[in-house]
Amino acid sequence: MGRLATLLLGLLWSTPLLAAPAEDFGSRPEALRIQVVTFGPGPHVQERFGHTAIWVEDTRLGTSVLYSYGVTSYGPGSGVRYLLERPRYWAARLSVEHSFFLYRARGRSILLQELDLPVEQRRRLFARLERDVNPATREYAYDPLRSNCATRLRDALDEALGGALSAQLAGRASLTWREHLRRYTREVPLFQWALMLWTNDTVDAPMTRWEEAAFPVELAQALAEGSFTDEHGTSTPLVKSSRDEHLTTTRPPPLALGPSSLTRGLLALFTAGTLLLLAVPRAATHRRAFRIAFGLYHALVGATLGSAGAIGFVLMVGSVHPYFGFNENQWMAHPLSFALLPLGLGIASGNERSERRARHYVGVLALGSLLAVVLKLSPTFQQDTREPMSVLLVANLGLALVHVKRWRVTLPRGASPRPEPHLPGDSTHAASLHSPR
C-alpha cells in the first residue's frame, strides 16, 4: 500500500497542476458555481494554519478551476526564510482533481462551502480572480498574518460584495493573534514555545474579526455566519450549502488554558536543577563532582534557553516582520544566555576564568529578569510573557543563587592554604619553602 501511494504521488507530481480552462470559460456568470475550499492543517510548520482557495465551476462547459493564492517556490525546508523575510507568492489556476488528490494523500481535511451569490457578484468575483492570476499582477509579498492565501481571498470576496463582508466583520475578535498562534501550533510544542518567546506585543493587540479571517478556518466560520442584501432588499445567507469533502483529525484544537506541556516540563527541569545544586552543602561546592555538575547545568541552560534567546535576538534585529521587533523577553534571554554553553563546558573542565565570566553573565541575566518583572507593573509594557518568563526567571535567578553560594564558599576546617609565591632573590623565603621537614 505504501509503495502504491508513493507511485501515485510520483505520477501526480509529474503531471502539471496548473489548469488551462477553455477560452470562453466564465463568459456567462449565471452558469458559474462558486465554492470556497478550506484545507485543514498539514504536517509541516508552515502548513499548521491550513489553506484556502476558490473552486469555480462553469456548469455550461462542465469544467472547473481552483484559484489559489498559495503558490510559491519555497519548500518545506525554508522555515528560516519565512521568519526573516517576506517570500514571493502568487495566484494561479490549479487543477481541482489533482489538488484534492494531493491534499487527501497528505491527510488534510477539505471543507466545501458553496456561495449563494447573485449573478452580478459572481461576475465581479470572477473578474477579480482572473485579474489576480494575470502574470503582470499575480505576485505579492507574503505575510503570515496580514497578507496570505486567506486575506487575498477574503479581499476578493469583499470587493465582489461591495464591502459587505468587511462591514460584517468589523467587530472585535474573541482571541488575539498570540492566542491563535498558540492554538494552531499546539501540536508542535517546541515551535509553539519559541514563538511565544520571539513574538512581541504586536500579536497581543486586540484585533477585529476581519483581521482574524487571515486564518483559513476562521474565514470559513465567518462566511458561514455571513449574509448579504440582494437587489430586493432581502438578507440572504452567504453560504448556500457546505459539506466535508475529506475528513481527518488534523483540525485546529481549541485554545488550551494554562501553560503548555513543554513550559511545564522546562519549568520542572530547571526548578529541579536549581534545587539540587542549592541542596549541596556549601563546604562541598568546591569539589570536582559539584564543579562538573555546575558546569553542565550552565551548558544545559545555554543550549536550550540560550540558543532560543540568541535566535530571538537575530529575528529582532534582522527580520522584516514587525512581530519580531523589540521584545520584552530579550531582557531575560539573549546572546549572553547562549554564551553559557561554552562557559559551562569550561567550568566543568576546571577553567576558573570561564567560571568568573559566567558569573558576570549570569548577573546580567538575573538583573534583566528582575527588570522584566518590574516593567510588567507599567501599562506601557503589555506583552504577554507569562510562559517564557516563568521558565527564564527560574533558570536565571536560580543560577545566580548558586553562583552566590559558590562564590562565598570557605575551605573546610583543617585545609592548608596555598603557599604564597616568593619574589626572586628572596633567599630566606625560598629556603623555607624548600627546606626538608
The major pleated sheet works out as: 7 strands, antiparallel
**Whole-number mean pLDDT:** 86
Percentage of residues assigned to helices:
40-55%
Strand arrangement within the widest β-sheet reads 6-4-3-2-1-5-9
Q: What would you report as the Rg, rounded to the nearest angstrom?
A: 30 Å
Assign an overall shape. Answer: elongated
- Strand pairing plus helix content: what structural class? alpha+beta
Total helices: the number is 17
Number of domains: 2
Note poorly predicted spans: 1-16, 410-437
From the coordinates shown, what is the CATH architecture of the largest domain?
Answer: Alpha-Beta Complex
Order of helix and strand elements from N to C terminus? HEEEHEHEHEHHHHHHEEEHHHHHHH
Estimated share of beta-strand residues: 5-15%
Could you walk me through the main structural features you see in this protein, from its secondary elements to its overall organization?
With 437 residues, the chain is α+β, with helices and mostly antiparallel strands. It folds into two domains: 26-173 and 208-246, endopeptidase fold (from Nostoc punctiforme) (Alpha-Beta Complex), CATH 3.90.1720; 261-407. It has helices at 2-13, 79-84, 96-105, 119-132, 149-160, 164-168, 177-184, 189-198, 209-212, 216-225, 261-279, 288-318, 335-338, 340-348, 352-375, 386-407, 427-434; strands at residues 32-39, 51-58, 63-72, 88-94, 110-115, 139-141, 227-229, 235-237, 239-246. The strands form two sheets. Strands 6-4-3-2-1-5-9 form a seven-stranded antiparallel beta sheet, sandwiched between helices. Helix 11 (261-279) packs parallel to helix 16. The protein starts with a helix and ends with a helix. Residues 1-16 and 410-437 have low confidence and may be disordered.
